[in-house]
Amino acid sequence: MGEGRRTQVMLLDERRLDIVVQPKLTVEELLNIVASHCHLRDPDKHYFGLTFLDDRQQYHWLYRQRCVLDHDFPKKMYLSGVSIILYHMIKFYVHSVSQLAYSPTVELYFLQVQQHISRGYFQVDSKSMFRLSGYAMQAYFGDYVNESVAKNRMKRLPLFPASLLKEYPSLAHCEDKLTEIYKSLFGMSRGAAILNYMSLVEKMENYGMHFYEVKEKSGASVLLGLCSKGLYQFDVNDPAVTRQVRTFSVITGNNWRTYITGIESFRSKFMIQNGM
């Protein structure tokens, strides 16, 4: 029997779960272990998966029925003393968090979406971005105290994507606008702030997307966004710029799971035709 491998699972709330993965441990079993640490229960826990980053900083999902150590991890993870790094993330998005059974799941959705927005993966107009940032501040830190405390809190939380900062003369200007919105949310509970945040995000085109960098037939790199609505093509240097859209005319939950698994399995060979 082979030896176990030291593994770190990165959770959405920034905690790290250290575990020695034995050769026969399946992904499904590891997901159940992680779910217990995140207070996830059926049916909500099935929306989540485990993924790792390759050398190009692209995510690869682990297959639930396969043993964890049977996956092809980046070479650097096979070096002596190096741990396998996995990420616990949402794999299948619901259309609305009102469909989720438990409040801890809603919080995890909020954490992942907020991270994606701060990295510029969503097409968000500046007015909505400031509103979302205000809800995020209220959810993370609670009520406004004074301007100095508010500015210090902003520095602790990634809020503004690079695209927003290009629209305004300075970061200080953005912070001033956000301070006014944050102040107006005084008294709002954490739960209400999260629900308001998600309600606004769920209306956005990019909500629920997984992104994959692939090659066009010409050899140029493009970014694919895949979700239950369809297949979106973005500028690889700016995920907020949509180049083409192909919607799915008929789709079911099972078809969606099969489609994303197919893209994941054959991504390295996937070629987009110029006509898409």
UniProtKB/TrEMBL annotation:
InterPro entries, sorted: Band_41_domain, FERM/acyl-CoA-bd_prot_sf, FERM_2, FERM_central, FERM_domain, FERM_N, FRMD4A/B, PH-like_dom_sf
Ranges of residues in domain FERM: 5-276
Matches recorded under Pfam families: FERM_M, FERM_N
Any GO BP: establishment of epithelial cell polarity
Protein name (Swiss-Prot/TrEMBL): FERM domain-containing protein
Natural source organism: Soboliphyme baturini
